[in-house]
């Protein structure tokens, strides 16, 4: 199924007058500040977030998985799904592949299909947290950190192959997330595990094309429950520094212990020019991979405040690789992703509204009350007319969920793909 601009323009007609009233009102209220509304809309339209190839079907937990009908059964169908989300939102112009879950069969055909939907290939993800069929060595006791040289070599070779695959598609970054660690005290020697990991990463890094970046993802626990080799941003940064200039830390919002100040981590990494990538999701307890903004939207806004500050003040930090890393257990995956994109845009737009000069002045005057007022005034502004306007100007839907349902996208996908479908990947 494809959605064309005319269909969306027709659907938008119903909401257009209402939208215009809200947009004009917001533009009018913002005209008193020095925020130019057209610049804001342009920034929102520019902001593109990659959709991971593993998030288009129903996810699951270790207790079960409940399929969603009409799920994509191939990489081609996954790209088509992202194309649908992108048509509606105009903010999902990239895909992030997980290898070997989504290895292309025909590179040219996949590239053509992606181009047809205006989708770029973002960072590629390696997978050494599962054993694959016919694999010689097992990752049961770790991959890049394993005490066995043969296992480490196999894992290194896999990462190099992932880079090769990504290179053929136009990707420019490799994301490494390791499940390596231990479940019981005494199982691992922490120092040996870290040293092996560093050396393995260096070997992968040195093999990458000169214009590639390496993103090192951290996570405190799971699947190992006693220790994880790359447990936090400090370890990731240390490893990135050990690799070289083009190695960076990747922050996944779900990969922190409760109440961690993620915005501070983001800020410090950008100061050091070492924040490379970002995985969006939300959580109540751990790595829950829930819809972005569904649990802690204010925290997301504070994180975006630091991201915006960093993007404006830290030229030493490269452009970031943005990706949604969520799992969809009960909602339609496409609707869920649309909601995540909306939450990301909302937090970004609100952060852009913060009067940075006034904030700096209030900070210097130690006027804590005003500091809070400045942040919360921005947070309390309903920025949705800006996001809608950005979509409208680029041929998207004023209300993507409404359009998705009006066009009966899921019903069409079920007609095309069937009722009992299982997406490849997670
Ligand atoms: C690990 C993780 C990592 C993986 C993805 C499937 O929890 O966030 O990014 O690649 O989930
Ligand atoms: Mn992640
Ligand atoms: Mn995760």
Q: What is the H-and-E element order?
A: HHEHEHEEHEEHEEHEHEHEHHHHHH
Largest sheet: 6 strands, parallel
- Radius of gyration, in angstroms, nearest whole number: 22 Å
The DSSP helix count reads 15
Strand order of the largest sheet: 4-5-7-9-10-11
- What CATH architecture label applies? Alpha-Beta Barrel
Record field, number of beta strands = 11
**Total number of distinct structural domains:** 1
Bound molecules: 6-deoxy-beta-L-fructofuranose, manganese (II) ion
- CATH top level is Alpha Beta
The computed structural class is alpha/beta
Distance between the terminal alpha carbons, to the nearest Å? 24 Å
Short synopsis of the structure:
The chain is about 50% helix and about 10% strand.
Explain the layout of strands and helices:
Blueprint: H1 5-30, H2 37-46, E1 50-52, H3 75-89, E2 94-96, H4 107-116, E3 120-121, E4 124-125, H5 149-169, E5 173-177, E6 181-182, H6 190-207, E7 213-217, E8 227-228, H7 233-243, E9 247-252, H8 262-271, E10 275-280, H9 297-313, E11 321-324, H10 333-353, H11 356-364, H12 368-379, H13 384-393, H14 400-406, H15 409-417
Parallel strand pairs: 1-2, 2-3, 4-5, 5-7, 7-9, 9-10, 10-11
Antiparallel strand pairs: 6-8
Helix pairs in contact: 1-13, 2-13, 3-10, 5-6, 8-9, 9-10, 11-12
Bound molecules: 6-deoxy-beta-L-fructofuranose and manganese (II) ion (2 copies).
Describe what this molecule looks like in 3D:
With 426 residues, the protein is α/β, with parallel strands linked by helices. It has a single domain (5-417), classed as Divalent-metal-dependent TIM barrel enzymes (TIM Barrel), CATH 3.20.20. The chain has 15 helices and eleven strands. It has a six-stranded parallel sheet with strand order 4-5-7-9-10-11. Strands 1-2-3 form a three-stranded parallel sheet, with no helix packed on it. The longest helix is centred in the N-terminal third of the chain and has 26 residues, at 5-30. The protein is globular. The model has no long low-confidence stretch (mean pLDDT 96). The structure holds 6-deoxy-beta-L-fructofuranose and manganese (II) ion (MN) (2 copies). One manganese (II) ion (MN) binds next to loops. One manganese (II) ion is lined by residues 252, 254-255, 287, 325.
């Amino acid at each position: 199924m494809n959605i064309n601009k005319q269909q969306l323009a027709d659907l938008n007609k119903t909401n257009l007058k209402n939208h215009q009233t809200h947009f004009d009102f917001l533009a009018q209220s913002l005209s008193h500040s020095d925020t130019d509304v057209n610049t804001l809309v342009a920034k929102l339209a520019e902001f593109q977030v990659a959709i991971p190839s593993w998030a288009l079907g129903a996810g699951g937990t270790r207790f079960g998985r409940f399929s969603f009908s009409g799920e994509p059964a191939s990489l081609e169908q996954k790209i088509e799904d992202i194309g649908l989300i992108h048509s509606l939102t105009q903010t999902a112009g990239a895909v992030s592949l997980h290898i070997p879950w989504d290895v292309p069969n025909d590179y040219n055909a996949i590239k053509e299909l992606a181009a047809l939907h205006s989708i770029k290939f973002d960072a590629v993800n390696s997978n050494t947290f599962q054993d694959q069929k016919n694999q010689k060595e097992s990752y049961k006791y770790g991959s890049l950190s394993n005490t066995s040289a043969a296992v480490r070599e196999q894992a290194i070779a896999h990462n190099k192959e992932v880079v090769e695959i990504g290179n053929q598609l136009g990707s420019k970054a490799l994301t490494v997330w390791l499940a390596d660690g231990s479940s019981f005290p005494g199982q691992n020697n922490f120092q040996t595990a870290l040293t092996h990991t560093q050396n393995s990463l260096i070997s992968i890094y040195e093999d990458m094309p000169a214009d590639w970046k390496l993103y090192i993802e951290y996570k405190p626990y799971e699947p190992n429950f006693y220790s994880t080799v790359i447990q936090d941003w400090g370890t990731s940064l240390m490893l990135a520094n050990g690799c070289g200039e083009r190695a960076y830390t990747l922050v996944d919002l779900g990969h922190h212990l409760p109440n961690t100040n993620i915005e501070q981590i983001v800020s410090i990494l950008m100061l050091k020019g070492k924040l490379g990538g970002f995985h969006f999701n939300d959580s109540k307890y751990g790595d829950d991979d829930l819809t972005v903004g569904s649990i802690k939207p204010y925290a997301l806004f504070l994180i975006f405040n630091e991201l915006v500050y960093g993007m404006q003040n830290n030229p030493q930090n490269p452009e970031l690789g943005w990706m949604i890393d969520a799992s969809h257990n009960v909602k339609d995956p496409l609707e869920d992703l649309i909601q995540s994109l909306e939450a990301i845009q909302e937090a970004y737009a609100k952060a852009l509204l913060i009067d940075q000069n006034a904030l700096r002045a209030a900070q210097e005057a130690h006027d804590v009350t005003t500091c809070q007022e400045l942040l919360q005034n921005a947070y309390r502004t309903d920025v949705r007319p800006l996001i809608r306007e950005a979509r409208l100007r680029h041929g998207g839907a004023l209300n993507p969920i409404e359009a998705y349902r009006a066009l009966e996208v899921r019903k069409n996908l079920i007609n095309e793909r069937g009722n009992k479908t299982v997406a490849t990947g997670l």
